[in-house]
């Protein structure tokens, strides 16, 4: 047992215990009211735990819910492809800047290069060491279609304007108020919300409220060398600590509640994370194909040890004695497991793709004129012109949706959905009281492959299609 687990075993168990049902119901009622998606409710069923249910009828293609991110990250490898707001994940800058910085990194030989969750390649490390300094544009070209460096620099620094980009305006990037120069925002309100939600503790700039900026730097270096998911877990912990401090300050101000025991404030602060379905990361992670089943025990120990090293770095950076239980390996493992088990892709379509499609659809004469300028750029970008923002996030309502291989809803962004929110629409008519299900995988796969894909989410599917297929396979 690690020393934190020993010191506060009871608190750790309380944090991991399921929320009393009435508290859970109250929490979701409030969340649904805030999200203004009153056609649904969250209920328990005897086989699959929590699920989302329709409490009114939905027609095919109708919007069921838009769910805001509780904590989210853009994959570090994706940062070279897309410049987005670190809080709402909207694209920022300008079409020229998006293209210029992408070509700049491409010319340096840095590109998106992994699945974004595990980050172990050489290139990836280069992506992650990018520190936002875009003023200098050097590096040698590795692409025979590459543009001259001066053009790339001018695009990146908004010194030239491409035709028709005024039809695709993007918010100007705002620097992090803490001075880290690593994250950018689309607005003051996003910068403030991110600062108050988690970034004040995780910022490496001079205004950082971490215990040690140096230790924070080491934590981030370890994340970059290993796995992005640790940064997401750190955000969940920072989010809870900051909520705890705010709740405590509110209670101190309200004299009558001064006697409130510390633990209930921590439980209250942790509530939004507590509702996520969890298991320990090293227990639930699917065994990779290249690991022999005989090595499973060693593999799981290795994963646990990796999490333990990451947590040691994080403790040095942001430890808070009053929230000590959050720094136990048990909690850290469960938070990471929660991200592993839920359906959490963060996706935002690129306005650069829209821009080139717009040019392509122009009337012939205008298209020809515009393409004299845009064609060399498109050639240099190659098929990467359509790269979108990718990340991982925790969506409190979407994460309650169970999987089905014959789903009645899907996560699908409409043209107007230009930020990181999850959008769920009906695939067919859904009747009142029916469970709303989405597919976590490609549901067209044959039965065995579907079950293999779902092993990543740690369960064997019991949807009607699987129940039928399993009896015909057996
Ligand atoms: C994202 S959570 C969904 C919400 C979850 N039921 C809860 O109680 O929080 C995913 C977990 O729900 C359960 N689950 C979802 N769909 C299922 C299905 N079709 N068959 C069996 N279990 C399912 C599994 O335990 C899975 O790991």
From TrEMBL:
KW Ligase (keyword) present: no
Pfam families (alphabetical): SET, zf-MYND
InterPro entries: ATXR2-like, SET_dom, SET_dom_sf, Znf_MYND
Highest taxon listed in the record's lineage: Eukaryota
UniProt KW keywords: Metal-binding, Zinc, Zinc-finger
Keyword Signal part of the UniProt annotation: no
Molecular functions per Gene Ontology: zinc ion binding
CDD domains: SET_SMYD
SET domain sequence ranges: 38-441
PANTHER family: HISTONE-LYSINE N-METHYLTRANSFERASE ATXR2, SET DOMAIN-CONTAINING PROTEIN
Protein's recorded name: Histone-lysine N-methyltransferase ATXR2
Species this chain originates from: Cardamine amara subsp. amara
């Amino acid at each position: 047992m690690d020393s934190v687990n020993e010191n506060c075993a009871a608190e750790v168990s309380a944090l991991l215990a399921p929320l009393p049902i009435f508290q859970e119901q109250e929490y979701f009622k409030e969340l649904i009211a805030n999200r203004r998606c009153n056609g649904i409710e969250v209920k328990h069923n005897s086989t699959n735990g929590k699920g989302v249910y329709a409490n009114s009828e939905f027609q095919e293609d109708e919007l069921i819910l838009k769910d805001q991110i509780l904590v989210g990250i853009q994959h570090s490898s994706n940062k070279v492809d897309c410049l987005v707001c670190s809080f709402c994940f909207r694209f920022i800058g300008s079409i020229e800047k998006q293209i210029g910085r992408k070509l700049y990194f491409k010319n340096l030989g840095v590109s998106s290069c992994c699945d974004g969750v595990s980050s172990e390649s050489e290139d990836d490390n280069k992506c992650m060491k990018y520190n936002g300094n875009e003023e200098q544009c050097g590096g040698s070209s590795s692409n025979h279609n590459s543009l001259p460096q001066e053009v790339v620099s001018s695009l990146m620094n908004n010194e030239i304007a491409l035709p028709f980009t005024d039809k695709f305006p993007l918010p100007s990037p705002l620097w992090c108020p803490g001075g880290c120069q690593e994250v950018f925002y689309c607005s003051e309100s996003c910068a403030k919300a991110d600062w108050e939600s988690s970034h004040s503790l995780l910022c490496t700039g001079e205004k950082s409220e971490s215990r040690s900026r140096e230790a924070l730097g080491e934590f981030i270096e370890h994340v970059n060398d290993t796995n992005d998911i640790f940064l997401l877990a750190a955000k969940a912990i920072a989010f809870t600590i900051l909520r705890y401090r705010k709740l405590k300050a509110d209670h101190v101000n309200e004299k009558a509640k001064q006697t409130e025991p510390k633990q209930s404030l921590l439980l209250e602060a942790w509530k939004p994370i507590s509702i996520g379905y969890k298991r320990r990361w090293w227990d639930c992670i699917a065994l990779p194909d290249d690991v022999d089943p005989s090595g499973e025990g060693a593999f799981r120990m290795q994963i646990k040890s990796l999490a333990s090293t990451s947590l040691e770095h994080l403790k040095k950076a942001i430890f808070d004695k009053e929230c000590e239980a959050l720094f136990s390996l048990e909690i850290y493992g469960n938070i990471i497991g929660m991200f592993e088990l839920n359906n959490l892709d963060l996706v935002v379509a690129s306005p650069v793709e829209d821009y080139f499609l717009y040019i392509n659809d122009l009337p012939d004469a205008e298209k020809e004129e515009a393409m004299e300028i845009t064609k060399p750029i498109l050639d240099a970008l190659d098929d990467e012109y359509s790269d979108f923002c990718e990340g991982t996030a925790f969506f409190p309502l979407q994460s309650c949706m169970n999987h089905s291989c014959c789903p009645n809803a899907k996560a699908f962004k409409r043209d107007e959905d230009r930020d990181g929110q999850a959008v769920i629409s009906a695939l067919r008519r859904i009747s009142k009281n029916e469970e709303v299900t989405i597919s976590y995988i490609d549901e067209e796969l044959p039965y065995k492959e579907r079950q293999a894909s779902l092993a990543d989410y740690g369960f064997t599917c019991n949807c009607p299609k699987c129940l039928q297929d399993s009896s015909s396979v057996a």
